[in-house]
Amino acid sequence: MNAEAPIGKVIGKNAKVGYAFKWDGYYAPKVAYQLMNKGLKLKVASKPFSGLVDDAPVAFDYGTVVVHTGIQQMNDADLKSLVTKVAKENGVDMYALQTGLTPSGIDLGSQSFSMLKKPQVMIVGGRGATSYDVGEVWHLFDQRYDIPLSVVDMTSLSYADIDQYTTIVVVNGNYSGIQGNALNKLKSWVREGGVLIGVKG
């Protein structure tokens, strides 16, 4: 017997300041990407807080993503419809936040919330990178999260335009072949704020 996929929902009736969803759900990254793909601005909490939902406090950990209504180009009705649809399809609960003043922790207007940047992801492939692990990461992003990513051969790094990416993933493998111009480009890209993720060895 196959287990049924969870159905997400909006919890709370009065989203005066926005919606929050926790990052511990498997499809939270997919939800974030879908919302950003629709032009929404998302912020992520770097500290825990609690928010009022139907007059009751709900605890949120760091990593919680908040969709503030006041900074969106979308009207409240369309925003609610989109949030409800995305939550339901991906099994991620959204919490309707009543006020920006929180019972505990950081307030929703705090500088401890940072704006999320829509990810542009690249994975290094080719000789040296374990093909199984490259495929596993590709499947997770492309098939599970609907987040497109480019696979760039290690030998192409010296002339590839890596500045277009926010994130580069390297999986288990031997990367001694990345030298000279390619290595300097990667170092410079990281110094400029690029996120380099190493998986396994």
Account of the 3D structure:
By secondary structure, the protein is an alpha/beta fold. 25% of the residues lie in helices and 25% in strands. The chain has 4 helices and 13 strands. The strands form 3 sheets. A 6-stranded mixed beta sheet has the order 1-7-2-6-3-9. Strand 4 and strand 5 form a beta hairpin. Helix 1 packs antiparallel against helix 2. The protein is elongated, with a radius of gyration of 19 Å. The mean pLDDT is 94.
Assembly status: single chain
Number of strands: 13
Mean pLDDT: 94
Whole-angstrom Rg: 19 Å
Largest sheet: 6 strands, mixed
Gross morphology: elongated
Count of helix runs: 4
Helix percentage range: 25-40%
Overall SS class: alpha/beta
Q: Poorly predicted ranges (pLDDT <50, ≥5 residues)?
A: none
**Strands of the largest sheet, in order across it?**
1-7-2-6-3-9
In brief, what are we looking at here?
The chain is α/β, with parallel strands linked by helices and 201 residues long. 25% of the residues lie in helices and 25% in strands.
SSE topology:
Blueprint: E1 10-11, E2 18-21, H1 28-37, E3 43-45, E4 49-53, E5 56-60, E6 65-68, H2 76-90, E7 94-97, E8 104-105, E9 113-115, E10 121-125, H3 131-144, E11 149-153, E12 167-170, H4 180-191, E13 195-198
Parallel strand pairs: 1-7, 10-11, 10-12, 12-13
Antiparallel strand pairs: 2-6, 2-7, 3-6, 3-9, 4-5, 4-8
Helix pairs in contact: 1-2
